[in-house]
From TrEMBL:
This is Uncharacterized protein. GO terms for molecular function: oxidoreductase activity. GO terms for biological process: steroid metabolic process. It comes from Meganyctiphanes norvegica (Northern krill). InterPro entries: NAD(P)-bd_dom_sf, Sc_DH/Rdtase_CS, SDR_fam.
Amino acid sequence: MTWGCALCLSLVVWATLVTATHYVWPLAFLGLGVLAVHITDWALKGLNNLTNKAILSQGHTRDKAVLITGCDTGFGHMLAERLDHLGFKVYAGCLNPNGEGPLRLKAGASYDLKTIKLDVTKDSDVRAAYDFVQTDIGNSKLWAVVNNAGIGEISEIEWCSMSTYQRVLDINTLGPIRITKAFLPLLRDYNGGRVVIVASLAARYTFAGFSAYSMSKHAAVSFADALRLEMNKWNISVHTVEPTLYRTQIASESYYMKALNQTWENLSEDIRNSYGNEYLKDYKSFIHEHLNRALPTEKIAEVVDDMVHAVAGIQPKSRYVPNIKTQIRARILGMLPTDLVDDIMLRDLPSTPPADIERRKSQHLIDPRIGPGGQRLKRIFSMPSLQIKRSPSPKIGDFFTFPIVKENLEE
Ligand SMILES: *[C@@H]1O[C@H](CO)[C@@H](O)[C@H](O)[C@H]1NC(C)=O
Ligand SMILES: *[C@@H]1O[C@H](CO)[C@@H](O)[C@H](O)[C@H]1NC(C)=O
Ligand SMILES: *[C@@H]1O[C@H](CO)[C@@H](O)[C@H](O)[C@H]1NC(C)=O
Ligand SMILES: *[C@@H]1O[C@H](CO)[C@@H](O)[C@H](O)[C@H]1NC(C)=O
């Protein structure tokens, strides 16, 4: 907590210094306003939490069915178990229903839990799953759809093939859209049903190496935001769960290393030489360190708790960020100006320069002052000043326009 406050304080000081010569007051008020809103929101959520943990009792779960995607392992698997114990009729979508995970899930669950083959990228699977649920559901009604299936991806943008981008987006973004659209007719039968979308902290912040993954999760959350508004008239609520990295299958190091090896071998000679083997080695340790930061297995339950709350809570929240430390970090990160966020994130990246940069430096082909991270546009703080210069009484909307890009091009 104290470091959070210290960071905020130094930020305010920093912001003030940067803009001291010109527009201290408008910016200070804007900053304080944003800070106040966040702190209030945060405090209210904290208070809300104390009273709000109740979930539906067994008597109220009997007539409710839930469809979950991605139940082979991890969060989905555990959620299916928990909801089954709570008395829901669970349809557990699995990539491979005859795999070890799904068989174990079925063996340990009640007769009411059914595993179904459901690859969220396949329209035919989705249609078959819909038909199965519709006939199997009997006197129950579809109460919730949990879009949990997802895939991770770590790669440099320059190395990542278009087909990889397409695959990640197909699973993480189009998957939830495909599933939700297909099951809405059944869901609408129940006055008060729910859609849950398991996103990620990467849905709000973008980390280097995670372009495909972050984009896919950002888009999924955006879909959830629109869906929440549009489903309001049907009394269907929409909830996102946005965990950081935990030690589930998605944090498997061997998976990413194998994928990286394949990606690297697939690259053109040219690109491989530009980056070089030293850089690749450093990139592997970057992946290793990142995955090492995954929260331990015993904490996975806190994510599943939030998922259960989203499905069965009496007063579910629109957005869950499991783990209080993650929440604080996310909130601070969300308040910081882009440049500062960049500075923080750049610290974690491989420090080995690509082979080509070294080569050019040694041949004096580049001005050493314009190396990576050397120069950048200062967007946030020059933005209001440019507007204020033009109009004597700036409107609030002026703060949210982006004249800076053009301005700089003209220089
Ligand atoms: C909407 O659904 C909730 C259950 O989630 C129910 O308690 C409430 O009465 C419903 N509202 C209306 C207006 O039907
Ligand atoms: C990746 O490639 C390196 C070097 O070719 C090799 O040592 C390593 O075992 C490979 N890793 C995986 C997971 O295939
Ligand atoms: C290898 O490159 C081809 C062509 O760019 C692409 O279609 C394929 O998906 C790539 N494979 C991998 C593993 O990146
Ligand atoms: C509030 O409760 C939710 C769900 O139990 C949890 O994810 C979140 O971390 C809690 N937030 C705070 C501020 O305690």
